[in-house]
């Protein structure tokens, strides 16, 4: 077991007042999504999103999408954040700060946490693990481990480290989501450079390892990009890669980043792909798209403004 989370003392009630003094800007979309941008002590900005989503019972739940890095080193070609490159990783305290802002600045009770904002969480795995310890702590946010999900592009080393945390008492229901986004190595390497070092067969082996230890299914995320990974034969290849892996597939219509060479897919295309996957007996959900008008949807964090700020910092060195 690790020592008490370094951030926890800071998270206790009296210190939340300092959240009110932070430089925070935000936008609200008509669909209820709030995207906020907080300036860190060193002048870098991070973005986070509060998403209102109805659960299976129809009850409105609020999901906080956390950033784990300023920018990202992974270079996925469909992603806005990738345009920034990696500026730096966040500390556990900076990750938890985003929860405090949502809770105390926006007065929002957070039901679910997903590490799906700026950055690859498992590229900053130690800080992410430390922040998860803070999130479940009953003296702090007290969020059930079943309500925390970590989404990775497939950092196999990070998946193994996270698996160690999930083996500890109290963390057994932290969910793993993997952005697969392609039916084969050729397409995956062309849109996700990490795949050249960690190809799909190795990734699958690591997921088999995960599911042999943890009993909750893995979420396979698939961003459907027109003209890239949208053919019925791609659905067939993906289904064969998934095979009997305990998982469900989340089909995500592509949200065009700035200057994107690809449009978003039509409803018909998404439905045809979903049907093709489902014909293999795989459980498939289609994710609803919130926050598109704010550039707050999946793969769209990392604003022009942040990128300009990075340039200012570099030039002033
Ligand atoms: S999709 Fe995720 S891992 Fe890939 S560049 Fe964007 S933030 Fe990084």
What does this structure look like?
The structure is a single chain. Helix 4 (156-166) packs parallel to helix 7 and helix 8 packs across helix 9. The longest helix is centred in the N-terminal third of the chain and has 14 residues, at 92-105. This protein has helices at residues 8-11, 92-105, 125-136, 156-166, 185-191, 194-197, 200-213, 232-242, 267-278, 304-315; strands at residues 24-28, 34-39, 45-54, 60-66, 69-71, 86-89, 112-115, 148-152, 175-179, 218-224, 247-253, 284-286. Helix 8 (232-242) links the parallel strand 10 and strand 11 (247-253). It is α/β, with parallel strands linked by helices and 317 residues long. The chain has a 10-stranded mixed beta sheet, with helices on one face. It has one domain (8-315): Aldolase class I (TIM Barrel). The site of iron/sulfur cluster has 12 residues, from loops.
CATH architecture: Alpha-Beta Barrel
Give the strand content: 15-25%
Bound molecules: iron/sulfur cluster
Instruction: Give the N-to-C terminal Cα separation.
Output: 40 Å
The chain-level mean pLDDT equals 87
Determine the CATH superfamily: Aldolase class I
From the spread of the alpha carbons, the general shape counts as globular
Tally of domains: 1
Briefly note the CATH topology name.
TIM Barrel
Measured as a percent range, the helix fraction is: 25-40%
Q: What is the CATH class?
A: Alpha Beta
The overall strand count is 12
Please give the largest β-sheet. 10 strands, mixed
How do the strands line up in the largest sheet?
1-2-3-4-7-8-9-10-11-12
Low-confidence segments, ≥5 residues, pLDDT <50? 1-7, 309-317
């Amino acid at each position: 077991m690790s020592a008490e989370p370094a951030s926890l003392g800071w998270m206790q009630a009296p210190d939340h007042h300092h959240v009110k003094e932070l430089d925070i800007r935000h936008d609200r979309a008509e669909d209820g999504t709030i995207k906020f941008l907080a300036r860190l002590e060193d002048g870098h900005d991070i973005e986070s999103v509060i998403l209102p989503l109805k659960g299976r019972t129809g009850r409105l739940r609020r999901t906080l999408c956390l950033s784990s890095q300023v920018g990202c080193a992974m270079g996925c070609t469909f992603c806005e954040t990738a345009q920034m490159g990696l500026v730096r990783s966040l500390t556990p305290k900076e990750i938890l700060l985003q929860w405090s802002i949502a809770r105390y600045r926006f007065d929002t009770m957070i039901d679910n946490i997903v590490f799906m904002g700026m950055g690859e969480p498992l590229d900053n795995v130690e800080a992410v693990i430390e922040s998860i310890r803070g999130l479940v702590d009953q003296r702090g946010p007290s969020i059930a481990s079943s309500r925390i999900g970590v989404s990775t592009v497939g950092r196999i080393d990070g998946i193994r480290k996270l698996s160690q945390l999930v083996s500890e008492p109290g963390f057994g229901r932290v969910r793993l989501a993997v952005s697969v986004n392609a039916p084969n190595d050729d397409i995956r390497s062309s849109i996700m450079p990490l795949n050249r070092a960690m190809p799909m067969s190795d990734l699958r082996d690591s997921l088999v390892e995960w599911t042999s230890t943890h009993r909750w299914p893995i979420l396979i995320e698939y961003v459907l990009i027109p003209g890239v990974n949208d053919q019925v034969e791609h659905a067939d290849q993906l289904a064969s890669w998934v095979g009997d892996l305990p998982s469900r597939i989340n089909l995500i219509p592509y949200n065009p980043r700035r200057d994107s060479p690809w449009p978003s897919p039509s409803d018909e295309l998404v439905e045809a792909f979903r049907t093709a996957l489902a014909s293999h007996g795989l459980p498939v959900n289609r994710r609803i798209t919130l926050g598109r008008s704010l550039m707050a949807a999946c793969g769209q964090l990392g604003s022009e403004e942040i990128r300009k700020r990075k340039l200012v910092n570099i030039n002033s060195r």
